[in-house]
Amino acid sequence: MSSPIQSAGNTSSGAALAGGVTKSLAEFISTSADKRLPSPVRRATSRAYANWIGCALGAVGDSSLETMMRVALELGGAQHASIIGRRDRADVVSAALVNGFAANTLDYDDMHVRTLIHPTGAVVAAAQALAEREHAPGHLLQSAVATGIEVECRLGLALFPAHYNAGWHITATLGTLGAAAAASVVMRLDAARAAYAIGIAATQAAGLRAMLDNPCKSFNIGRAAAAGVLAALLANAGMESAPDAIETKFGLFDVFGHPSKPESITEGLGESYLVSEISLKPYPCGVVIHPLIDACLEMAREEAIVANDISVITITVHPRAVELAGRRRHPDTAINGRFNIYHAAALALTRRSAGIASFDSADIDDSKLAALRDRMKVEADASLRPSQAGVHIRFVSGVSKEQKVEFPSGSPERPLTEEQLREKFIELACRCMTKGSAERLLESCLSLEQSVDMAEMRNHWVS
Fold first, then answer.
1. Are strands 376-380 and 310-317 parallel, antiparallel or unpaired?
2. Which residues pair with 49 in a beta bridge?
3. d(CA 366, CA 343)
4. Strand pairing partners for 168?
């Protein structure tokens, strides 16, 4: 899929070449509230919103989320915003923190593959909290979400992969700016205040990749959402910041990495939207594993896969998949299992499923899964695209079988059907509500622009 945005490079182009990025983004943000989005963008945004709500609902009851919520509610102020899936309400900053955390907990949330950003994570959490407090209409929330995603992903395309390779959790760092952008749209900030919000967000941006195998992975995203809300609130209240925080000396680019073509960040801004590139996950695990899961599921549909019948399983994936999910043959925690090539492949091959129920019930110490993992050989192939993967099985009998995937299910090239999205949403939502309530909530999410008051959304899970 083509885009004017270029990949990041190690260059000393400096602030002079980046002049006006903050100003241009702020002007884009300030005009987004009343701009009617193209129909395909509205549809993509509503689907992404529904997916986010479903993922947050599915995490209700998770032990790490309970810890986060308990602390947040103890510290919180005026109860203006809902905790998704619960009767509890909190102040807008705390609600954004908890809901951003929740939506990422199951590793089932969306992904922008070219940047490895989970686009809705912090953005929707921030916009949702403020939209409820402000009794904003659905079309305003829709514009806020599309705008926030555009800001974080355009910056992501400019800074990836150098920023990510340096160890920054890109969903958290740039998600902070995306959340601030979305929050600023809901607050209807003018360009000057939006620029200050960007600066207030930028100085809070943080998040380490070292946290990806523990609950702080999700805390990074919740914290980005909370920081974005706080940035917009402070800017609206009159607090100033560097008006050119992205490109100024010692600003975002100086600290997080210089893009090779900073001017491309704003090229065509508002003419097309990157929300259309979002992948909605069919499997609750690292997106780099999804092509392999598809290949394994196709293989398993043909015949039963039993470890004792197999000589070797050769897995071929893009090098990024090996880097992020292929360094350990046997995972030692459930979270590590969601980011493990061997475990995901064994699950798909033996259980012929890789949905939330399969991952939840799969014991990482299961002897059958371990035996299959022991027969696997993972190879990185730099000639493959990240969307490609292959699995080759040589049986003890001497017979060999092979399966390849060009694009994984859930990707823009193979998007989830309406029925697939519905099944995913209902399965997750039914963890805390009836099927009838879940179906009505899904319809409200998918018809987001028709909502008169976003504060009424909570009625679906508190009725």
1. parallel
2. none
3. 10
4. 208
User: Amino acid identity of 64?
Assistant: S
Cα gap 376→36, rounded to integer Å: 51
Distance in angstroms (rounded) separating the CA atoms of residues 317 and 341: 10
**168-216 tens-digit pLDDT:** 999 999 999 999 999 999 999 999 999 999 999 999 999 999 999 999 9
* Alpha-carbon gap, residue 168 to 166, rounded angstroms: 6
- Helices marked H in 264-381: 290-302, 319-325, 334-337, 341-351, 356-361, 367-374
pLDDT along the chain (463 residues), means of 10: 33 44 97 95 98 97 92 90 96 98 97 97 98 98 98 97 97 98 98 98 98 95 98 98 96 95 91 96 96 96 89 97 93 91 95 92 90 96 97 96 97 97 97 96 97 97 87
Nearest C-alpha neighbor of 299 from the set 341, 350, 247: 350
pLDDT in tens, 240-269: 999 999 999 999 999 999 998 888 899 999
DSSP structure string for 236-271: HHT----TTTTTSTTSHHHHH--BS-GGGGSTTBTT
Give buried/exposed letters for 371-392 (b at 16+ CB in 10 A, else e). ebbebbebeeeeebebbbbbbb
Q: Which residues pair with 376 in a beta bridge?
A: 313
Q: What distance lies between CA 313 and its chain's CA centroid?
A: 31
Predicted pLDDT of residue 8: 33
Which domains are present in the chain? 15-277 (1.10.4100.10), 287-405 (3.30.1330.120)
Burial profile 6-39: b = 16 or more Cβ within 10 angstroms, e = fewer: bebeeeeeebebbeebbbbbbbbbbbbbeeebee
* Nearest CA-CA partner of 456 in 96, 135, 185: 135
Question: In sequence order, what are the beta bridge partners of 402?
Answer: 392
Closest by CA to 396, choosing from 262, 264, 306, is: 306
